[in-house]
Amino acid sequence: MSPDDGRATAPEAPVAESGPTIRHDRPPFLAVVSDADSETILREGLADALPGTLDIRRGNIRTAIALLHKLATPETLIVDISGEERALNALGDLSDVVEPGVRVLVIGEFEDVNFYRHVTRGLGALEYLYKPLTRDMVARHFGPLIARKAPATQGVQGGRVVAVIGARGGVGASSVAVHLAWHFGVEARRHTVLLDADVHQGTAALMLGAKPSPGLRVALEAPSRVDSLFVERAAQPAADRLHVLGAEEKVHEPLAYSAGAAANLINALKSRYNFVIIDLPYSPLPWHREMFDLVNQRILVTEPSVHAMRDTLRLMALPNAPSQPRRAMIVLNRAGIPGGLKSAHVTEALKAKPDIEIPYIPRLVGHAANLGTPGHAAKGPFRTAILSIAREVAFLGKPQHGEESGGKKRKAARKRLFGIF
Asked: Model's pTM, two decimal places?
């Protein structure tokens, strides 16, 4: 990192490095952040990039400068400029105390594009992220830089693809997928499609009061017929900006699947929708296996039972695909169910705390599912859990004083959303 000399130089390319560029007399990593939430997210988001204990300390950029007067300069340094009125000057002061070649990553509260350019191109920081942080954001943008690897590729540009996968049947993955899609499409007003990958016994269309369509079978058997017009006709409307692509094929009629059809369908959906939410059973069926590796993020839904813990661990052990920079998000559904495992036992079994917990509220969720109106369940602790999942998936920002509404707030949310794609 070096002070601005008037040249708008591009940030250092995030490619794999080896040999003399790595100083073995330096500690590998140091982060100084201002709040507990950022510390937790950094620890979890960087767990794959830097296995083991991370040296993360509490403070601001002035704290980091004081520490570096006493400590050896690390290979990678993360600093938090939140609350600093003269942030660029402080970053300039930081450049006076770090050695050349240090990989500096910055987090803060400024959302301005010009500020980002000053930090990366002018001052030489590798990357800048603004709060609120999410685990996926940290893993996707900071992880490859810290691990000195090429960044995860996103493939065809377009909407974000998320798979909601049940650890086993009946754990509530379909309910989570439906309510997540409802939130994006109806409440957040993003163009959203819910793809039910179970062509024989899928429930997504039923839960949203939409019609199943033969289009899904056609897309999986004859991918050459899939284009933007096909997608628009096959996906059935459940609301103004929420569509459903599901089927109810006869259970005794197997599909004649064409290899690569799943990728072709997902790419077509990405070009049409901001969010593609897939209710995805994990099974040996070829399109299920392909979709499992094609999505940007996996959400594993489990419940507090011994059988579910076993199957969750088996799914967690599967490797990430290139488009997935961090491990799957773990959602514990039906937390507190009578006779179920306690939260401490779940954490012990998974060797990790679930990212999100949804309490056991069967009457509310079941009533909404039977009526085909998921909005009825979007209240109280269930709504809080769905909003937490949505923030992790899409970085929509944390709502202030309840539901965000109105032109300015929607515009701000849209700005935050587009800032990470």
From this structure: 0.72
